[in-house]
Amino acid sequence: xQPKLTSSLKRSCSSSIIKLLELYHQVxxxxxxxxxxxxxxxxxxxxxxxxxxxxxxxxxxxxxxTYLINSDLLSRREQSQSYFxxxxxxxxxxxxxxxxxxxKDHHPSMPYKINDIFKAAEWVLQGVTASxxxxxxxxxxTSSITPESNPPHSHDTGxxxxxxxxxxxxxxxxxxxxxxxxxxxx
Length: 186
Description:
This protein has 2 domains: about 30-125, no CATH class; about 130-185, no CATH class. Helix 2 runs antiparallel to helix 3 (about 50-70), helix 3 runs antiparallel to helix 6 and helix 5 (about 90-100) crosses helix 6. By secondary structure, it is mainly alpha-helical. It has helices at about 1-25, 35-45, 50-70, 75-85, 90-100, 115-125, 160-185, and strands spanning about 135-140, 140-145. Residues about 130-155 have low confidence and may be disordered. The protein contains 7 helices and 2 strands. Strand 1 and strand 2 form a beta hairpin. A two-stranded antiparallel sheet has the order 1-2.
């Protein structure tokens, strides 16, 4: 009876050891880099046009990339760089501008944190409403800031974001200079 017990015990122990080694060596990975590349490629193809699409991508991306980082298959720098790849050039530029404004002392060669990129993208995707169009009128002169050139508008009425104020002041200055030139010509 003892040989059967020993044989059964050996099988059980060797089976457990094999499972532990598989877990230790991560033979059965939950996600691999291909999963992350597929997620990024799909989002590049579809684009991110709304806060909902951004949130859905962010949740999936965080799950996969965090797992890959914990498995030593991805670095934080690669995580940040690949997160940026999903945004089209216009959105990417706006997000980068927002990050540079928020993080003035951030060194350009260092990657941004994923949550910082997400918050900046969220801010940019809030969009510009038609009511945020600013028009400056003076005699014989009309100048406007269109939604295409205007940074996203805050939903808080009565507040102007720094980027908007800069554009408004630039257009206002141009209007004053043009009005002065027109007055001198008459």
